[in-house]
Amino acid sequence: MQEIILILFVLPHMIISQQWKCKNRAGAANADCYAVMQNTYRAILYKGPAQDTDSPNDWANGAAAVTQNNGHSFAAALTNVVGPHANVKFLAYNNVPPAVPNVKTKSNSKGVIIISTAQGENDGAWIVHTVPGFPAAKTGYSWPAAEIAKGHLLICMTIAETQINAVAASLIQIEPFVYYNDIPETETAGMPDFKKLAEGQIPTTPPFTTRRSIKTAAQAPVDIHIYSKSAKSKYEIYKKVIVQALKKSIKVWSRRDNKLKGDCRVYQRNIRLIKSPAQIGDHPTNIEADESNWIVSEPGNIFCFMDKPYSNLGLQFALTRMQFLLDLMLLLLKLKTVHHEKQYESPEQVELLIKLE
To answer: What pTM does this model have?
Structure first.
C-alpha cells in the first residue's frame, strides 16, 4: 500500500505550506495508492534494478525519475526532511545512515516518522523503505547514485500523530539505528515508547513478540497491524507469526539461497520462494540486484513488505500487509515459485510485521 506525505512550505507574506503527508505520483495532490488508485493517505513506489522510475504498466510509471528532487511522490513527501521547515519535525532511522560510516546494528530497518508541530494539526506520516544512505537530513534531496542499479521499494502511510507511540513500540523491538531526530519532547509527552525509540533503548522484559494496531488518517481508514519480534523471542517468524497472522500460504521474494528458512509444516499452509529472475510488468528484476523483500499471499489479496533478506533471518525482519492493490496482485500472482525438498527451523530472529488491511 502507499502513503503520501503532505508537505508544507513557509513562503513570504505569511503564506505557509507544509509537507508531512503522502502525495500522488506527480508529487502534488494528496494520494493513497501510488499510481494504482488516487485515494488518500498511502503511497507505494517500486523500481526495478537499473530503472529510475517507479511502478510498471497498470500502475503507470512515475511522473519523474527518483533522482529528481520534484515531480514524484517521495520527493514531495520528503521536502521538509531534506530541507528546513519550522513546523515539520521528524525521526529517521537506517542501518546504513547518510554520512555515518561503520555503523554496527542488528537492524536492517529504514524509515522516517514525520509530524507537524503547527497548531491544530494531528496528522503525520510513516515511511518505510529499502534505500541505504537515504534520506539525508536537511541537506537537500539526493537519491544515492549507486542505488539506481538496484531494485527498491518505498511505502508511505499518513497516520494520526497520536499513533506514533504505537509505531515506536513496534520499532524498539527490532532495534533500529536512529540517525536523526528533532521531534520536540513537547509533541511526544505521554509517549514513553517514542522516548525509548529516540534514545535507542532496547526492551529487556517480555513480551518479545507483540502486535500493535493503528489506522491511516482517512475518512475510510485502513487498518495497520504491526507484528514485532525481538531477538529474545523464540518464535519461528514464518510459522508462528506470518502464516498465523495472514492465515494463508505465502510466496516470498527476497535475496536467499533457495532453501526454505522457516518450518512450513502448517496444515493447509505453504511457504514458497519466487523464482529469479522475474518480470513485474515492464520492470525486469532479480534477487541479486533487488534490495526489496516482500511476500504475496495465496490467494493473492495481500502484499507484505519485509526489510530483512530471507537468506539472513537471524537478526531482523519487517513486513507490511496491504490489500486491494488489484493491479499489482495480478502481476505478482503470475510469478513462478521454486520447488523445495528440505525444510528446517530458522534461528533466533528479530522481526517486524506491518499488516495493512
So the answer is: 0.82
